[in-house]
Design a protein that fits this description.
By secondary structure, the chain is α/β, with parallel strands linked by helices. It has a domain of 198 residues: Rossmann fold. α3 crosses α4.
Amino acid sequence: MQMITQEGDNVYPIGIEGNFDDAQGGVKAIFTNPGLARVMEEKGYRFSSANSINWGRLVPQIVYYVSAYCDLVGKCEIKAGDKINIVVPTGNFGNILAAFYAREMGLPVQRLICASNENNVLTEFINRGVYNRNREFKKTMSPSMDILISSNLERLLYEMTGRDAGCICRWMTELRDNGIYRVDDETGRKIRDMFWASYSSEEETSRSIRKAYGDYGYLVDTHTAVGMDVYWKYVLETGDSSTKTVIASTASPFKFAGSVAGAILDEEKTRGKNEFELLKVLSEECEIPIPRALSDLDKKKVRHPAVCAAAGMENQVKKVLGL
């Protein structure tokens, strides 16, 4: 509803039949089409992306982690130079890659903790060195992480292999053709020395939302809940409870009102209510105002009902731009 009710005269949201991987694959196919690029250039257009395909998404995220570290120092939680852990709930590996680059630039980081939902392809890769997308795609309550092809991982591998482009090309070709690749032992070891990974089931995610609210009075969204749950698993497995840890919180809990309300409220308070009704229930129960971008969203006019197959994305772009 946020997308299809957009009121700007220069935005044209188009739905895609498929999942995130279908969408991102279609975008990459468009971006790398030389014929389309020539036509675009003739008309004075260039493609860009708002997601982490674009380095412009990663650069400000690097700043987040430096800023968080400075906050910890400023609050006397740590001394300058002390190492911290960073937990990032991720599917496309962009935000945690930004944390990696912050570390490379000198931020004192002990462990980067990669938190996944039931689409746990990254967990298996970090722990075993095998990337295998040949598995069931699961629709979860943390949809921004419902991804089986993590684009930014190849950027990490590029760094871990000493920027061996030929090696990365070979692995990515295996992924495209066979849906699986295995990195060499040295690369796998380097990754495990820096990263720790686990995932959360749907029930564990709900339990994490409930625990955060019950123990701390802090309402988290489903993705942040995955990060918190995986952090607790990290502490349990490693015994490292003393290292100060930053957990990236990724969205407003009101964007996932059904899942969040279901986790913290009694069933009689949520039964039979739609997402918009649950916004009000959550707001009243938790005494938190509904974000302005979501309030009265159900009363807005749908202006962009177009939907296409992933294979039809290029034609939709041409249609919008009049090419």
